[in-house]
Amino acid sequence: MDKGFRKLASQIQAGTVWVNEHLMIFCETPWGGCKESGWGKDLSTMVLHEYTKTKHIYLDLTPTPVKPWYMILK
Questions:
Q1: CA geometry: angle 37, 39, 43, nearest 5 deg
Q2: Calpha distance 43→21 (Å, rounded)
Q3: Domain range for residue 58?
Q4: How many C-beta atoms lie closer than 10 Å to residue 40's C-beta?
Q5: SS3 annotation, the chain
Q6: In degrees rounded to 5, what are phi and psi of residue 16?
């Protein structure tokens, strides 16, 4: 691709930029929108960072109902 097209494509705020082709989309192409384009990040690994939040959940599955340190807290 010509350097001029690469520079121009990097400045366009859209998820997909076509050069000398139009409406050719592969099933692997991320979609979901960037600004008003209608194409963006869904169907890609990028979506994992966009749609998730890290959360730590501790679940104690031991059969002992009261731990030795529990009485100290009361």
A1: 165
A2: 22
A3: 1-74
A4: 20
A5: CCHHHHHHHHHCCCCCCCCCCCCCCCCCCCECCCCCCCCCCECCCHHHHHHCCCCCCCCCCCCCCCCCCHHHHC
A6: -135, 135
CA-closest candidate to residue 39, choices 51, 29, 24: 29
At 31, give phi and psi (nearest 5°). Answer: -140, 165
Convert the pLDDT of each residue in 32-67 to its tens digit.
Answer: 556 655 555 666 677 777 777 777 777 777 777 666
| 12: alpha, beta or left? (left if phi > 0; alpha if psi -120 to 50) | beta
Q: Quick one: which of 20, 47, 21 has its CA closest to 32? A: 47
Please tell me the pTM assigned to this model.
0.32
Count of the separate structural domains present in the chain? 1
Q: Report d(CA 25, CA 42) in Å as an integer.
A: 14
